[in-house]
Amino acid sequence: MGKMVAQTEIKSDGDVFHEIFRHRPHHIKNMSPGNIQGCDIHEGEWGTVGSVIFWNYTHDGKEKVAKEIIEAIDEEKKSVTFKVIEGDLTKLYKTFIITVHVDTKGQNNLVTWTLEFEKLNEGVEDPNTLMDFCLAVTKDIEAHHLK
């Protein structure tokens, strides 16, 4: 399994950021319309482990889709883990897990993205541009909340 981790500091409220990914990911399309075009619940309820979410997004200039299951939620650590079960990423990776974690310390809020992946073959590149995408969405959400 490959693993990539990236962190970025945000000036907006870390609790709000976590709450968006847990309970309101469907609002992200309004905050980062260039990256996220849609987010719908397919099974279960928002903010519940086992729920299935369908995303429409633009990555590397191409419209893509992903169906993800919420694998874990940790309120104490402010983390949400999504496992990709269908969509464009499954054409390249056997397994793809995305965790977004918010560390709140006073005025400093640190967002950590962890991508865990198993490539279908050696020719598949590491998901560097997808990590850039996650960080760009983070900055869009931050900018939206600093308005």
From TrEMBL:
Domain Bet v I/Major latex protein: 1-147
The protein, known as: Bet v I/Major latex protein domain-containing protein
Pfam families attached to this UniProt entry: Bet_v_1
Gene3D superfamilies tied to this protein: 3.30.530.20
Family annotation (PANTHER family): MLP-LIKE PROTEIN 423
Residues that span the membrane, as ranges: none
InterPro entries: Bet_v_I/MLP, MLP-like_ligand-binding, START-like_dom_sf
Record organism: Ilex paraguariensis (yerba mate)
